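Lab meeting, item 3. Inverse folding demo.
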């Protein structure tokens, strides 16, 4: 069984991944906001992963995984489970490398994500009400059909690719003090600690979870895997009902804190991102700003990177958020 040091990508591996990822993806900007810095009381920088081709940071991990596994993936096809953004990552990367992709999703996923997957040519299967039910079915399907299974959370090959966004952060803002990254499965936060805790250990890495889906937070607090059995949040990217072994191993001793945010706080953060940056974020993508608002007194006066991890939100939902006062 691998330990945390073996599971966490080393900087050398992340640089290798960056050479691969940079061949297929643009570098996303790190944008400073004077108005939000004034509102928050700290120097606020926003990493705009919502500008990726699939509007999510996860495409980085998908491309690195598919590059490394392309021969086997072409022969067998791949299957995975997702609430949306990981699915698009695998579907986008599979199309790029000529691989057949099957995606299992729970019912109730936003229409914008479903349409995007259809455009990418993925075979979609809807199963269960929550992510974990879809994941279990995907695992079953991989055995029955002899497809390559991509675990959306525990698959280590996803981590170096995802970590490249934090390598860019370190290069663009080497004197950063704090990095805030949402946690659904945990790959984004793993990327953050892999870069910042190996390169400069004085940088604080803070995770964010939804109040209605806090299994990882509880696991991080206790050191034991916790399943809440429910994921009661509008943030699809954070809607996991249980924690997973590999992220807990890596993040347990390396995260400095985890902040819980409500759906209402994420909705408010979506409005602020539109108003001050002209950027569209889904609820999970706005979670870092929601957390920054919640803990602004604790990090007052510091240089802070807030990850805008995704921008896949239905137009009707966005209009409702922007017009609801």
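The presenter then showed the designed sequence:
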């Amino acid at each position: 069984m691998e330990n945390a040091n073996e599971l966490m990508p080393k900087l050398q591996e992340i640089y290798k991944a960056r050479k691969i990822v940079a061949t297929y993806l643009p570098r996303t900007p790190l944008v400073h906001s004077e108005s939000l810095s004034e509102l928050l009381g700290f120097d606020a920088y926003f990493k705009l992963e919502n500008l990726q081709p699939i509007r999510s940071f996860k495409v980085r991990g998908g491309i690195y995984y598919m590059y490394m596994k392309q021969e086997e993936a072409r022969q067998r096809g791949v299957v995975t489970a997702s609430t949306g953004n990981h699915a698009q990552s695998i579907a986008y990367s599979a199309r790029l490398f000529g691989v057949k992709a099957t995606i299992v999703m729970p019912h109730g996923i936003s229409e914008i994500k479903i349409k995007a997957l259809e455009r990418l040519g993925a075979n979609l299967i809807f199963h269960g009400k929550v992510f974990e039910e879809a994941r279990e079915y995907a695992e079953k399907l991989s055995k029955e059909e002899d497809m390559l299974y991509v675990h959306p959370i525990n698959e280590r090959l996803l981590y170096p690719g995802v970590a490249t966004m934090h390598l860019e952060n370190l290069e663009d803002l080497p004197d950063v003090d704090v990095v805030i990254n949402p946690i659904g499965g945990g790959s984004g936060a793993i990327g953050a600690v892999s870069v910042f805790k190996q390169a400069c250990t004085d940088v604080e890495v803070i995770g964010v979870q939804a109040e209605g889906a806090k299994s990882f937070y509880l696991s991080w607090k206790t050191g034991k895997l916790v399943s809440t059995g429910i994921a009661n949040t509008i943030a699809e990217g954070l809607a996991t009902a249980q924690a997973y072994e590999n992220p807990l191993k890596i993040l347990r001793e390396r995260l400095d804190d985890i902040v819980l945010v409500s759906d209402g706080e994420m909705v408010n953060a979506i409005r602020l991102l539109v108003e001050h940056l002209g950027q569209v974020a889904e609820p999970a993508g706005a979670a870092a700003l929601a957390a920054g608002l919640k803990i602004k007194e604790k990090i007052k006066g510091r240089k802070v990177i807030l990850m805008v991890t995704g921008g896949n939100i239905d137009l009707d939902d966005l209009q409702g958020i922007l017009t609801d006062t």
